[in-house]
């Protein structure tokens, strides 16, 4: 158990690393140039949405007991869209690109629906991590601030400037000769391209960039943030028992012997109570045949799996 916790802690430090690293910027000739810069805001620059903290007390004034962002903003179909990350640990990119997509739509009064490219983050955000070997949702949000996202839909969607390039697979616990996310070798990370790779998309890369700001969301204000501005993202420890989730409110048993599976980033689209148990309503990126049509409910208030430690959101410029 001690070894397992030590391994997870090392993995989280990697996934949310705060060291100064090297990333690219675009120069006047639209070529990649290297740039060394801090990965974190200074304290004076950080944009918090309130003061204080806490994982079990929430701002609830005027908020409903049950809330689903898909119903509040029905003309923003991206909110309910479920991605399939394939055999690529890219949830850090998918969750952020998806949340940015939702918020662009929401803050345009549901009139604009550009789909942000997770592929661009995976391939081109070197601060974010190691492509298909995992990364940081925080750095993905910061990439949105510094460089902006181009558009891009699902694998084979033919949508946007840089659509997703990793084929889907099915997440299952048991070993299978089929294309299983857990038994096949991880996909190679596609190379970064500073151009639109979709031949049927007629805007240029430089004119397709969407930029915004981001901020950390304190858990006690998370419900109000979602209600006012749309879905947010978080990152949590995922154990193998969640692979088999189908319905109900998931609560990790601290005494369980289930193996640690991965650090997963997800999009929170609502909350509620089921049989007296408060929960977060979450969109995952394992495809619609996983969980409850791609979503799951996880207990709210006890910070199980450290679900409420790394909440972030942003707004379009």
UniProtKB/TrEMBL annotation:
Signal peptide: 1-17
Pfam family, one: Peptidase_C1
UniProt GO MF annotations: cysteine-type peptidase activity
Highest taxon, organism lineage: Eukaryota
Similarity annotation: Belongs to the peptidase C1 family.
PANTHER family: CYSTEINE PROTEASE FAMILY C1-RELATED
Designated name of the protein: Peptidase C1A papain C-terminal domain-containing protein
Native organism: Aphis gossypii (Cotton aphid)
């Amino acid at each position: 158990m001690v070894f397992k916790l030590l391994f997870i802690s090392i993995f989280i430090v990697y996934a949310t690393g705060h060291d100064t690293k090297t990333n690219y910027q675009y120069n006047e000739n639209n070529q990649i140039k290297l740039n060394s810069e801090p990965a974190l805001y200074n304290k004076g620059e950080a944009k918090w949405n309130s003061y204080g903290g806490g994982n079990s007390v929430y701002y609830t004034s005027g908020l409903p007991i049950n809330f689903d962002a898909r119903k509040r903003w029905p003309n923003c179909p991206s909110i309910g869209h479920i991605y399939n990350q394939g055999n690529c640990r890219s949830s850090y990119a998918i969750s952020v690109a998806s949340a940015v997509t939702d918020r662009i739509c929401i803050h345009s009064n549901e009139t604009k629906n550009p789909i942000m490219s997770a592929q661009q983050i995976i391939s081109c955000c070197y601060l974010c991590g190691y492509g298909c070997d995992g990364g940081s949702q925080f750095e993905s949000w910061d990439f949105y601030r510094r460089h902006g996202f181009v558009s891009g839909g699902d694998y084979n969607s033919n949508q946007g400037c840089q659509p997703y390039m990793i084929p889907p697979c099915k997440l299952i616990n048991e070993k299978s000769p089929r294309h299983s996310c857990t038994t096949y070798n991880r996909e190679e990370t596609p190379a970064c391209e500073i151009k639109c790779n979709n031949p049927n998309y007629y805007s240029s890369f430089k004119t397709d960039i969407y930029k915004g700001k981001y901020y950390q969301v304190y858990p006690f204000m998370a419900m109000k943030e979602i209600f006012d501005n749309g879905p947010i993202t978080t990152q949590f420890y995922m154990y193998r028992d969640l692979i088999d989730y189908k319905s109900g409110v998931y609560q990790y048993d601290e005494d369980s012997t289930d193996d640690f599976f991965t650090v997963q980033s997800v999009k929170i689209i609502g909350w509620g109570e089921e049989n007296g148990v408060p929960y977060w309503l979450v969109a995952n990126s394992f495809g619609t045949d996983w969980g409850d049509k791609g979503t799951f409910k996880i207990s709210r208030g006890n910070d199980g799996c450290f679900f409420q430690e790394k909440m972030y959101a942003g707004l379009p410029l």
